[in-house]
Write a structure and sequence with these properties.
Four copies of one chain form a homotetramer. With about 190 residues, chain A is mainly α. Helix content of chain A is about 75%, strand content about 0%. Chain A contains eight helices and no strands. In chain A, helix 1 runs parallel beside helix 3 and helix 4 runs parallel beside helix 7. The longest helix of chain A has 29 residues. Chain A is globular, with a radius of gyration of 18 Å. The two termini of chain A are about 25 Å apart. The interface between B and C is medium-sized, with 32 and 33 residues.
């Protein structure tokens, strides 16, 4: 079973997701400066999701680079991750149109939460496929940043019903936390 | 003629199909929890089609991995399969909007049926291109699961006019049946 | 300069064109058998364009397989071809909605004509890049089928204003003529 | 870290951007020759953006060809470029519908300006990753054409509020200036 084709397929799907999201930013009907106003929330939610997907692509890249063996379970764990990532198109569009509402903000968090869960499952499936004492296991270590992200997403989902700006702030914090590349893997293998 | 470019093109098309299907899930106009209600059938039909396409990608992956030679007929048999798979975008969108109607449920089954027929034709075209006693022929064996799927799809198309829930149940059964990777090939070649 | 990246980019663009065309087939608003009626012309124009793009992908595949050297002019001749192919999305959608009108039928032919011209330019640019006595020049020979296609497209554009069914018939004839793979190249190089 | 996967991902994103832009050209509701009139500005803005993206793909191709080492910063500088390129879908659609208005013309220029800035950042990040006396540094030399483009874009953004045709002319001039491939790199490395 070929790691190359798994990487190529994942790259393809992430590239498409990251790009078709821009179709959710509808061109304004008018042509005045004021017509750009309603586009700003759509633009910001696009930026946020673009960076999230960039982080996933980046980490996925590092993760598979450190991987030596894949199997059928890995293919499905990977498709599961791509499924949740694909839903960012839907929630980014919805959040962009209703940025000051609790439900779209919370649902955005649910998709991020589930994508993070799917990534964790993918990591574990890959570790199981490598066998003990693998290069990947040594590189991964404890997943502190992953667990912290899950906790932050869960808080953001609940806090969206208090004040959606808190949730938005949390999403930005998680993004900043991950913009630093995954040095656990990079430092050991690059 | 290059197997790599055929795989890359197929991966590209399947990656695009699986991703643009999400555009058929329209963001709700409102932002209340109740606005998510009408999205649920679209979401479920998206999940179903995503898994179907994942299965096709997975089996296509195994199939070509076991293939040694391709020719012009294989290219067209492959495009024929991609054609029917691309129609899942259309039927998934239609089924999502009219999940309790007979015709969209039956037409969904027709597309799955034709995709399964196209896959069978692709397998036979590949076998013919390999010549007798090929590694692929040994790996494929009898195609019990493929034939059973065709029979189940045919029943689902007819039963949609009795009760569309029966057809939906059949689609789920076929998905579950295939989620087990194609061990015929995997066990012999991996 | 890398032939592999040119092939991969072309495959990507053609894969996207062939797939997003399906988005022009809008899911019907109703769910009765009669609601499928208006979709039929869209479906048929989708089938026609799908096969046209499949032929271009197939011939492009053979053409570059026989190519040894590319340069900057080849990149632009290739982008020029991809440009006209991308317009099939627009004309397929328009023709599907107005299949019995002269102008969309003629404009469809204009795009096919220009794509054929662009393919001819690409072939000549590639031949110039190979130098005399190349493997490609020997494989191409005279381009009878290409010239005949150009003449047929030109007739179809004019005849659309007489009766658009004649043009549709011509488009189908050209498709059938090309479904036979380009044996000029295949027979010499495969 | 793999240069191949960075190239493949960039090719994928640029291929998708260049192709989904065509979805912004909506099929006319009528089928008369006069119905094509309103499509012409959309068509011209599509042509302009297609050529711009073709230039970026072409130069990106040359740039990475000359690159020997990439790192995490390069991945993000590259994603930053792809972000601004993806926004061409939005501004091309908007400009096509309001070609005689100042704001869409200026915003189109802003996106081109930012893409050029992002390309400059990518070049510098790549140079830093190569270390001194690299093959890439020798090939790049001074970036006169890049700096001139930035100045021209800035003028076009301001002049759009005087007369948007001046800005359109400037965009065409920049395109023509770049259609000549980047000989700085090509002449030294090809």
């Amino acid at each position: 079973m070929s790691k190359g084709r798994l990487e190529a397929f994942s790259d393809g799907v992430i590239a498409i997701i990251i790009t078709i999201m821009v179709l959710e930013m509808k061109a304004p009907h008018g042509a005045l400066p004021s017509d750009l106003g309603p586009v700003i929330p759509s633009f910001l939610s696009y930026v946020l999701s673009f960076v999230f997907l960039g982080i996933y692509w980046n980490n996925h890249h590092h993760l598979l680079h450190a991987t030596e063996r894949i199997n059928g379970k890995v293919l499905w764990a990977n498709l599961h991750l791509l499924f949740w990532l694909s839903l960012t198109v839907f929630v980014t569009g919805w959040l962009g149109e209703h940025h000051s509402a609790a439900v779209p903000t919370a649902v955005y968090g649910v998709v991020l939460f589930m994508a993070a869960v799917a990534y964790t499952i993918l990591v574990r499936t890959l570790l199981a496929a490598q066998g003990p004492k693998s290069r990947l296991a040594a590189a991964i270590g404890s997943d502190f940043k992953g667990n912290l992200s899950l906790a932050l997403y869960a808080s953001a989902i609940l806090l969206a019903f208090v004040n959606q700006w808190i949730s938005d702030a949390i999403y930005v914090v998680v993004v900043l936390m991950w913009l630093v590349p995954d040095r656990r893997i990079e430092s050991r293998l690059s």
